[in-house]
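agent> step 3/5: call structure_predict on target 'Glycerol operon regulatory protein' (Actinomadura rayongensis).
agent> reason: downstream docking stage needs a structural representation; sequence fetched in step 2, passing through unchanged.
tool.input:
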Amino acid sequence: MAGRSNGQSQGIQSVEVAMRALEALENLGGPAPLTGVANEAGMSPSTAHRYLVSLIRVGLVVQDVSTGWYDLGPAARRLGLEAMRRADDVGIATRYAAELRNATGHAVNVTVWADNGPTIVRWEYGRHPLPIIARVGSTLPLVDSSVGRVFLAYMPTSITQPVLETQQRYKESSALRDEELSAIVRQVRAEGIAETQGAVLPGLRVLAAPVFGPGGLLAVVIASTVLARLARPEVLASVAEHLRDATDRISVELGGPTAAQWSALPEPAAD
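tool.output (status=ok):
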């Protein structure tokens, strides 16, 4: 049998076309009508509809029953989160998160920056059951969550500001005066940690700290969650100490600076 001369393996064209529909939904940045998906994907509405029906069946796309608009589905979110989890920085952070949970007994989560803002990619549950949690895949508010405040403190404003404005427009994050926001950023940078209580989920005290990669770029954020009824000063101090130690060790393993070293950089990468 003669071999193919183009040097490429034979593929399944329908899969490639379906991927165009998925990429269209990604590029559109939110729910979209059939005509919008078709135009973005460069195909006719009838063709787009056939592929969207199949993608809905496997969970990669969902359709709002009231508007008829399409959006990425749960299977697409799972694939995206798993891809991020397998990245080196997330994989290493996840390993340390489990160690941190074992050392403190309190729940720990790993969060990365995604298009919509801080997104949880991993939970390590502690000895104390939590009444409610933000699920894996959830996007956290920048101002009101300790995790979000770490991103505000250490990521470039050019990246965080558009997301912050969107969250505030949809009442997903508190609107603060510039001086109030600057005060939060200064405090997080000075302490190397952010702490909030009940701002996002009632009854919980959350401490979050940064993990840096090469060049001082923020890679992930690690957060420890403590039940408010257990949040005595000595408990919080111990959790904060373990959290700082864990995030500094992850940063070193990733080839980045510790939080203290980041603060000493002449031109902080997050400014």
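agent> step 4/5: record observation. Residues 13-72 form a domain with the Arc Repressor Mutant, subunit A fold (CATH 1.10.10.10).
agent> proceeding.
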